Amino acid sequence: MKLGFEETQSPYASGTQSARAWTEAWVRAWAYCPHCGSAEISQFPNNSPVADFRCTSCEEEFELKSQKRKFGPKVSDGAYKTKCERLTASNNPNLLLMNYDRTSLAVVNLFIVPKHFFVPEIIQERKPLATTARRAGWIGSNILLSKVPESGKIHIVQNGVIRAKEVVLEEWKKTLFLRDKSLEARGWLLDVLKCVESLGRRDFTLDDIYAFDRHLGDLYPGNQNVRPKIRQQLQYLRDHGFIEFLSRGNYRLKS
Predict the structure, then answer these.
(1) How much is the pLDDT for 139?
(2) pLDDT digits (tens, 9 = 90+) for 13-58
(3) Which of 154, 157, 71 is closest to 106 using CA atoms?
(4) Key word Hydrolase present in the record (predicted)?
(5) DSSP 142-184
(6) Which CATH number is 15-173 given?
(7) Where are the domains of the chain?
(8) Residues 130-145: what's their mean pLDDT?
(9) Phi, psi (degrees; rounded to nearest 5) at 45
């Protein structure tokens, strides 16, 4: 894998169009599928509804977002209705996020948010476009990266360093159990994991997570047994290697 863009010249007058051409060409040339490891990545025709690329080996689909600066707490995305409808679809795309250096024409960071980390809570509805806009009334969406656990941000390139492919594939594989969960079940797991991460330390207690019971109750108002649900999620996270049980009521977040 090379981090530099092959094309230093572009037929586009727009810097945005040139960057899109460079980044898409880089994905076609150097990206691999984190699901099966194949480097056979093909591109969909321009203006496809959601996805930009697909793995020809396992049919995983990917949407690419690229920009010069690092990504912040949210990313602008396509139509809100379409995004919500695709949440449970088998071909809902995984999200590739790339930031690059315009001077050196090279990838600086590339990470992927697997599609099984997408739940309704991380899709934010934007305000409809004004009546004076060309697409008046169109409603877009934001992807709230701030609500995605760190385990849902799998780095392929980090700060200009290419991470080992086998490590990326292993991190991906570790999260696949989420695909077997309903949207609500996934939501509970991810929300509890975010609570654990928000503590800012590896070791924590059950009481630390119980402190989020009101927050979680607000997220799931139909559930009247929040604390038993918290314990259940911690059990799932332990069974799948995200946290470690130390002793009664004491846990450790695995790095």
Answers:
(1) 94
(2) 566 777 888 899 999 999 999 999 999 999 988 766 667 899 999 9
(3) 157
(4) yes
(5) EEEGGGS-GGG-EEEEETTEEPPHHHHHHHHHHHGGGGGS-HH
(6) 3.40.210.30
(7) 15-173, 183-253
(8) 90
(9) -60, 155
- Both tokens assigned to 163: 């991470």
Residue 240: name the closest of 167, 190, 198 by CA. Answer: 190
From 3.10.20.740, 3.90.550.10, 3.40.630.30, 1.10.10.10, which CATH number describes the 183-253 domain?
A: 1.10.10.10
Instruction: Mention every residue, 6+ apart, whose C-beta is less than 8 A from residue 133.
Output: none
Distance, in Å, from the CA atom of 118 to the CA atom of 34, rounded to the nearest integer, reads 17
Task: Let me know: does 26 contact 6? Beta carbons within 8 Å.
Answer: yes
pLDDT tens, residue by residue, 233-255:
999 999 999 999 999 999 999 87
Provide the angle, in degrees to the nearest 10, between the axes of the packed helices 226-239 and 183-198. Answer: 90
Q: How far apart are CA 203 and CA 79, in angstroms?
A: 40
